[in-house]
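May I ask for an example protein's residues together with how it folds?

___
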Amino acid sequence: MRVTGGEFKGRPLKTTPGLAARPTTDKVRQSIFNILMNDIEGTTVLDLFAGSGALGIEALSRGAKEAVFIEQGHAQAEAIKQNLVSLDLPKNIIKADYKGGCRKLAEEGKQFDIVFADPPYEKVPPDDVAKAVMQYNLLRIGGFLILEHKTGGEVKSDCFILLKRKKYGQTEVTFYVRER
C-alpha cells in the first residue's frame, strides 16, 4: 500500500498482516481524495478506526494541516506510529475504541473539518459512527463525514445531508455534510 497523491505520493505505508485490519484500497482512497480535491488544503482531519492511518496520512500528504488517528488495536496503532515516523509527521494517535477516543477529543474541545470512518463492517453500523461524531460534537458545521461501509448501510440523521455515494463491489463510501 502506498500514498496515492500529494507530497508523499508513492511512499509505502505499513499495514498489519492478517484480517485484523482491512485497509482502504489505493483505488478507493484515490477516488475519495479526487472527490475532496478542493476541500483538503488547511483542514483538520479525524481518522476513526484508522488501521494503518492511510486516510489521515493521505489527507496530510494533500495539504491537511492536522490529522488525529483513533485506533483500538495495538498492532494497528503501532503501524500508524511507524508510518508517521517514516514520513516525519506528528504522532497524534489515540489508542482507544472509537467512543473512548471520541470522548477524549470532546474533553479537549476538538472539532474537525473532515471525519473519515472505516469501521469493522459487521461490528459497527454507519449510523452508530454518525451518532458518536454528533454526540461528541467532533465535526464542524459544514464539515464532511466520509463513511466506508458494506453496501447498503446508511446514516439516518437530520444533522447530515447526503452528498454522494460511490460503490466499489461490496464496499460503499458515503459522503455527508453536517448541516447543523
User: Anything to note?
Assistant: Residues 74-86 form the longest helix (13 residues).
